[in-house]
Amino acid sequence: MVRVGIIGASGYGGGELIRLLKAHPGVELVGFSSRKHEGKPLSSAWPQLWDEGLFATLEDVLERAEVVFLALPNGLAMELAPRALKEGKRVIDLSGDFRLPPEVYESWYEIPHKSPGLYREAVYGLPELHREELGGARLVANPGCYVTATTLALAPLAAEGALRGAFVVGLSGVSGAGREGEGTFFAEVNENLKPYKVGGVHRHIPEMERNLGRLLAQGRPVRTHGPLGEVRLSFVPHLVPMTRGILVTVEAEVEGNWNQKALDELYQDFYAQEPFVRITEALPETKGTYASNRVDVKPLYEARTGRVMVFAALDNLVKGMAGQAVQNLNLMLGLPEETALPREGLWP
Ligand SMILES: NC(=O)C1=CN([C@@H]2O[C@H](COP(=O)(O)OP(=O)(O)OC[C@H]3O[C@@H](n4cnc5c(N)ncnc54)[C@H](OP(=O)(O)O)[C@@H]3O)[C@@H](O)[C@H]2O)C=CC1
Ligand SMILES: CC(=O)N[C@@H](CCC(=O)OP(=O)(O)O)C(=O)O
User: Where would I find the Semialdehyde dehydrogenase NAD-binding domain in this sequence (predicted)?
Assistant: First the structure.
């Protein structure tokens, strides 16, 4: 059994990690921290849990665990990860701190990076593309939720060398903003639908462009610190009055002549061996992936305009965050990748 700890365990990512890891046969959950709930039982933050285990201090969790999940706001992992690694722990960071080169991170996140040298040690935690690298990783940068959906939607076209750009419309449930997310009061979210962080300012843009640029330059498998090609995209996120779920509707700017058969063959072939990516006949919908680690993807050729579109749906707290982090843990530990990860969702 591997001793695993969660730092930031009273947030949505931490809560989902607890749900998944409690059912993991190869993991012993040895600690979970929260400043607000320190010393109190898990159930004080998570009414759905019948578990009187107590929230510990960050120090205690670091002390006890062999592998730590950092489920903290951006700007904190960059201080904690170096310490954990120095103490021989392995780290899976759910924040954006190690997803981008430090100078890119600083300009988009507007946070000075305190461990710029550590970026070269980080492996990007998208198993469908980085599986080979993840085996020996000591530090994993878990992707953003919109980024996971968009990257997997466009990866086959990028790996084919056909992708030049995209227009991405993203729709997210409110849990995407975190348990204390700004602008998420019920009275203002309910019966409302709004775009936000538009005009090329959302910090997921460089992450999406780099993921696809790596594929364009390297094909699959890609290496985190390998060469990049040029992919430019527009991204328009929207807040949707629902708890969980990400849907992306993408128009891909592609080279070459396409039709539906060619798209279907490309996508079916690219994801044929993937346990958590399903190419659907029907259009993806978020509730179909609810509480599962699956991504549903559908490429569509619109004959009347010649446009190539792709739709993808996932649960932002599972494949968009905690489920993906557990998938990465499985690969890091050499365990079967699907361990403790549901492929089927809840309905309704
Ligand atoms: N929500 C989503 O869909 C996704 C989120 N992410 C990223 O994952 C990370 C976690 O997100 P999420 O779980 O939603 O966030 P939440 O806001 O829900 O939880 C944050 C956690 O961090 C703890 N925390 C906050 N500030 C500090 C601090 N200064 N020192 C120590 N602990 C602190 C909080 O507990 P306490 O204050 O009690 O210590 C809480 O446990 C974030 O970086 C987010 O950007 C990535 C993909 C998807
Ligand atoms: C609804 C909502 O606010 N969603 C968040 C996505 C959060 C996320 O994916 O976290 P990272 O910051 O770690 O990438 C946003 O748009 O910023």
Answer: 3-137
DSSP letter at 222 equals -
**Residue 61 in tokens:** 């969790």
Cβ(21)–Cβ(340) under 8 Å? yes
> Could you tell me if the CB of 76 is within 6 A of ligand 1?
yes
Residues 125-128: contacts with CB under 8 Å, at least 24 apart: 125/92, 125/324, 125/325, 125/328, 126/151, 126/152, 126/211, 126/324, 127/276, 127/324, 127/327, 127/328, 127/331, 127/337, 128/152, 128/155, 128/271, 128/274, 128/276, 128/277
Q: Write the DSSP symbol of residue 121.
A: G
Full DSSP string of 124-138: E--HHHHHHHHTT-S
Closest ligand 1 atom, residue 180 Cα: 17
Averaged over successive runs of 10 residues, the pLDDT of the chain (348 residues) comes to 98 98 98 98 96 96 98 98 98 98 98 98 98 97 98 98 98 97 95 98 98 97 97 98 98 98 98 98 98 98 98 98 98 98 96
* CB of 146 shorter than 6 A to ligand 1: no
Distance 76 CA to ligand 1 centre (A): 10
What single-letter DSSP state applies at residue 120? G
257 as an active site residue: the answer is no
Contact predicate 147/208, CB 8 Å: yes
Model-level pTM greater than 0.90? yes
Mutate to test the pocket of ligand 2, among 204, 239, 244, 247 (most ligand atoms within 8 A of CB): 204
The dihedrals phi and psi of 171, each to the nearest 5 degrees, come to -125, 125
